[in-house]
Amino acid sequence: MLGLMMKQELMISDLLTHVEEVHPSQEIYSRESDGSEHRYSWAECAVRVKKLANALLEAGVKPGDRVATIAWNNYRHIEIYYAVSGIGAVVHTINPRLDPAQIAWMIGHAEDAFVFFDTTFMPIVAGIHAQCPNVQGWVELTGNLNESNEPKSLTSYESFIAGHASTIEWPRFDENTACTLCYTSGTTGNPKGVLYSHRSTILHAWAASSKDAIGIGATDTVLAVVPMFHISAWGMVYSAAMFGAKLVMPGPNLDGENLCAMINQEQVTLMAGVPTVWLGVLEHCRSHQVALPSVQSAVVGGSALPESLLRAYEEELHIPMHQAWGMTETSPMGVVNQPLPQHAGLSSDELVPIKLLAGRRIFGVQMRLVDDSGEQLPQDGETSGHLHVRGPWVASSYFKGAGSDAFTDDGWFQTGDVAVLHPSGHLEITDRSKDVIKSGGEWISSIEVENAACDHPDVLMAACIGVAHAKWGERPLLIVQPVEGKKPPREEVFACIAEKCAKWWIPETMVYEAALPIGATGKILKRELKLKYQDDKNMV
Ligand code: ADP
């Protein structure tokens, strides 16, 4: 017997209609590429979204067509998200930090009909447009076009939407229709397209906003440092509309000074970003005695949270830090670290090891661990294995059938992460399978070694990689980026590692790098370090 409830497709346009009707005056603050400020309400945003939707329809954009963005977190980018998906087309978000040749490849692979880009990225567009013959129009996110007459089909955003009707009857269609295409950034191989649907996007926004996940409500001012060009800013553009939160979109300058000023000016309550961004904020707070009293929660994900960063936020800045884990393929939210009742009486020192776990899974996301032969492993808090996930906002395959070996025959996605699952429901990431160091046939967790090294006050960041070794197969090499002006002695850093890790995990060698290579999504590029240090001569 079927239930007698209405069948209403989950549509992204409904989010806009909702926020327009229920929270019309809630603000979106945005910092533009030229440094200027922009502030308007969700109701004003909705008017411009509809103008853009009508402009796109008139330009010939049809359901299923791909419309690319190369843009920072700003208000016009939000408008594009809602207008493109609202008419049944697909927003293809492009990471501008990628190599231009790779961007041109993605535009071709995605068959983008239009490309909207921030002024900052004009040099990229100038360099690649000739290699993208199928793009019908290039739209610069500005009101005033510079004197450029290349590419030929260049328009400014404001003239593109000007004169178009500000009303529209949003079409309704199958909720499984694609809305966003995001390529994995390729830290682990060639980029592969993840194609989100209206249904997966809304379910993810709902679940990720809940109290035990990111926790977003109408009284929040949300600083989305995580970029809209990578996994839709962790869905926060949608969650903010769903719950009527104020959004703060920081634009291009994500340095500590700029972010601190914005946080205090806009009275941010909730912020989300990768550890490297929070490190920059912390350094500025320390060096300029800045406090961030409005912030009630900082969500950190994308790579492991070092203990030193967690303690600094909680003890010095008095900001609770919540770790999260996710991937492009999981929309991204899979787990978030929020308190459990049994932790109520614990001291802050006792809580630290719990907070350093990636978090507990959100309802909807299922996980299992398997060994090399695919046999399922226990979730006992000790055994580590390959992490598989499934759920309504987890990819079932890649765009155009790429990388099909990542998906198992029985319906799971193989994350490529090595993890431990705890009986408490916590996920602990020990490594990426390709970063794991195999010494004498046993695994060394590069993440644990790195985090322990960061306990030394003069170590800003650390990367631990495996280098070939005649006897052991591989041994760990530690590469540290010291705090400016410092040079932490090896023995002291190794002593920090000895406190947290097995003796045989301690590297024999440590080298210094003035700046570790950071990739397009703010993570340390271990691939580059492996290339550099596979050869002994670089180990000076
Ligand atoms: P890429 O790193 O290739 O750009 P993603 O942005 O999708 O791709 O990154 C997903 C990966 O980031 C995960 O598979 C995991 O290895 C890593 N990651 C994310 N969150 C955490 C975390 N809290 N702890 C450790 N690793 C994490």
Q: Could you walk me through the main structural features you see in this protein, from its secondary elements to its overall organization?
A:
The protein is an alpha/beta fold and 540 residues long. The chain folds into 3 domains: 12-217, Rossmann fold, CATH 3.40.50; 358-432, Luciferase, domain 3 (Roll), CATH 2.30.38; 436-538, GMP Synthetase, Chain A, domain 3 (2-Layer Sandwich), CATH 3.30.300.30. It is 29% helix and 24% strand. The protein has 16 helices and 25 strands. It has a 13-stranded mixed β-sheet with strand order 2-1-11-10-12-13-14-15-16-20-19-18-17, sandwiched between helices. A 7-stranded mixed β-sheet has the order 7-6-5-3-4-8-9, with helices on both faces. Strand 24, helix 15 (490-500) and strand 25 form a beta-alpha-beta unit. Helix 7 (198-209) packs across helix 9 (236-243) and helix 10 (256-266) crosses helix 11. It starts with 11 loop residues before the first helix and ends in a 7-residue tail after the last helix. The mean pLDDT is 94. Adenosine-5'-diphosphate is lined by residues 184-185, 187-188, 301-304, 323, 325, 327-328, 358, 415-417, 429, 432, 521, 523.
Average pLDDT reading: 94
Characterize the quaternary organization of these chains. Answer: single chain
Broad CATH class of the largest domain:
Alpha Beta
Low-pLDDT sequence parts = none
CATH architecture label of the largest domain: 3-Layer(aba) Sandwich
